[in-house]
Amino acid sequence: MTVDPPWALLAELTHGCPLRCAYCSNPVELVRRSRELDTDDWRHVMAQAGELGVIHTHLSGGEPLLRRDLPEIVAAADAAGIYTQLVTSGIGLDAERLSALVRAGLRAVQLSVQHADARTSERIAGRRRSFAAKERAAALVREAGLPLGLNVVLHRDNLDALDAIVELGLGWGVDRIELANAQFYGWALLNRDHLLPERGQLERARDTVERWRERLAGRVELVWVVPDYFDGTAKPCMGGWGAVSLTVAPDGTVLPCPAAASLPGLDPPNVRDRPLEWIWRESPAFNAYRGTAWMPDPCRGCELRTVDFGGCRCQAYALTGDPARTDPACHRAPDHHLVQEFTARRTSDVPQPLPVPRSYRSSPQPSP
Amino acid sequence: MSPWRPALARSVLLRHDRVRGTDLLVLPERVVVLRGPAGHIVRLCDGRRDVRGIVDELGARFPGAPVADEVPVFLGKLRDEGWLR
Ligand code: SF4
Ligand code: SF4
Q1: How many Å apart are CA A90 and CA A122, to the nearest integer?
Q2: Out of A121, A168, A222, A282, which could bridge A114 as a Cys pair, Cβ 3.0 to 4.6 Å?
Q3: How many angstroms is it from A194 CA to the middle of ligand 2?
Q4: DSSP of A28-62, one letter per residue?
Q5: pLDDT value for A346
Q6: Least CA distance to B81: which residue of chain A?
Q7: Are A242 and A282 in contact (CB under 8 A)?
Q8: Are residues B11 and A146, on separate chains, in Cβ contact within 8 Å?
Q9: Is the pLDDT of residue A352 over 70?
Q10: Start-to-end Cα distance in chain A
Q11: Looking at the predicted structure, is the pLDDT value of residue A265 above 70?
Q12: Contact across the interface for A107 and B28, Cβ inside 8 Å
């Protein structure tokens, strides 16, 4: 099989983070700070990624601003011809740091926000005074003239506040708002009872997004990442396994998707041991679910197999114990009832706070 | 009114992709593949040349090509997308 070059690199620079969102996309097994790649390792990763054909990198975490060497990493990516975007909670961004990053070649910023209401946002993020820091960060990015995107993970505690969230973004002068319905694996699966919305909430939210899309057409881009549990459709995970994007974890592990660390038997390669080109083209991990040959029924004969690639491997594994099964989010999947059992329980139209304990990530140990 | 002197929008980067052998416009969350002569045209959008100047230069470089008709339309489309200012 010929393997096309990757377009994008998700660089998880650290799993350390001052926030504690219940849907964090980091793996449940966080990488300790003492095991992180150093500056030279990241320089080497960026140089190799540029050679391989990577065009975009998201410098992410955790909170990437915890890395003091972030400007050096940005400069290395820029020197490799890669367009750099910072994905941040905004905590720790001040004028000085931002200007060092811009000088190093930073091109754009994505800021996460949990809610439009400061108190609620701070409750969801698990950190006081975090909202004011975000507001400040947004203003700094605008002053620096960089494109600014707002990233919002949607769940039962903020889906009813979409109008306010979009207005917040407009007030902050953003160019793009990504509204991503929570995806249930990793931390979000542990906290699913707490996060899963009701169908009525989603229907209202979808209408709200449609209305805003019409009003904002051509001015601000509104991206809606579908709630696959409720749609009965599998999402095209990462644009296909090993097709578009790769993730480098803080310790140098390379994965086709940030959640794939949990998959059994994957034996993911590491940039400390192997060249990135071999990892992308040859490694068993990147070839495990590449293309369509690995697919089971009903994906194998389905006309959508090259559109959604059979859905998410991590979700298939989390719900069925077998990563090679059809994603249970798909209404054609033999395991679709596993998803329906959960969505059926969420029918009442009035969101009610549930007495469900939440699992919180704690930050990994700082390096000595 | 002074004529429009096309230049790339601030967040847009024009680069050549050696690996894929093509010119690209790179934006946040987006890559636009510039096919055929599109890269040559965008490369002339330096904020100094006006549309006429771009057309003349391309006409000299590609004699016989329908640049006078097609290039202004193409530039207008890129401006509508927000990639040129
Ligand atoms: S495999 Fe699953 S978790 Fe990984 S990127 Fe795809 S959808 Fe996400
Ligand atoms: S059966 Fe497989 S390929 Fe077809 S829609 Fe469902 S997940 Fe996608």
Answers
A1: 13
A2: A121
A3: 28
A4: SSPPPGGGS--HHHHHHHHHHHHHHT--EEEEESS
A5: 61
A6: A218
A7: no
A8: yes
A9: no
A10: 45
A11: yes
A12: yes
- The pLDDT of residue A351: 44
Q: Which residue owns the Cα nearest ligand 1 atom 5? A: A257
CB-based contacts of A367, cutoff 8 Å, min separation 6:
A32, A33, A34, A36
DSSP type of residue A186: H
Residue B28 near chain A (CB below 8 Å): yes
The C-alpha angle with vertex B63 and arms to B58 and B66, in degrees rounded to 5, equals 70
Residue A262: per-residue pLDDT? 82
- Dig out the tokens for B44 from the structure: 């002339």
Could you say which ligand is closest to the alpha carbon of residue A327? Answer: 2
Judged against a pLDDT cut of 90, whether residue A75 lies above it is answered with yes
Q: Does ligand 1 come within 6 angstroms of the Cβ of A237?
A: yes
- Considering chain A, what is the average pLDDT of its residues? 88
| Residues A109 and A85: beta-carbon distance below 8 Å | yes
Q: Please, which residues have CB within 8 angstroms of residue A278's CB and are 6 or more apart in sequence?
A: A269
* A42: closest CA of chain B, how far (Å): 21
Residue whose pair of structure tokens reads 């960089």 in the numeric block:
A146
Element of type H or E holding A195: helix A192-195
Sign of CA dihedral A70, A7, A279, A185: positive
Q: What is the total residue count of chain A?
A: 368
**CB–CB contact B28 A5 (8 Å):** no
- Whether residue A207 is predicted with pLDDT greater than 60 in this model: the reply is yes
Edge to edge, the sheet with strand A83-88 lists A221-225, A176-181, A148-154, A108-112, A83-88, A56-60, A8-12, A245-248, A254-255
pLDDT tens profile A166-206: 999 999 999 999 998 888 777 777 878 788 888 888 899 99
| Backbone angles phi and psi of B66, in degrees to 5 | -80, 55
pLDDT, average across residues A337-361: 59
> Which of A55, A145, A176 lies at the smallest CB-CB distance from B26?
A55
Q: Sheet containing B30-34: which strands, arranged edge to edge? A: B13-17, B22-27, B30-34
Tell me which amino acid residue A349 is.
D
* Residue A156 amino acid letter: R
Q: Does B21 touch chain A (CB under 8 A)?
A: no
The predicted structure's pLDDT at residue A217: 85
Question: A146 and B20 in contact by Cβ < 8 A?
Answer: no
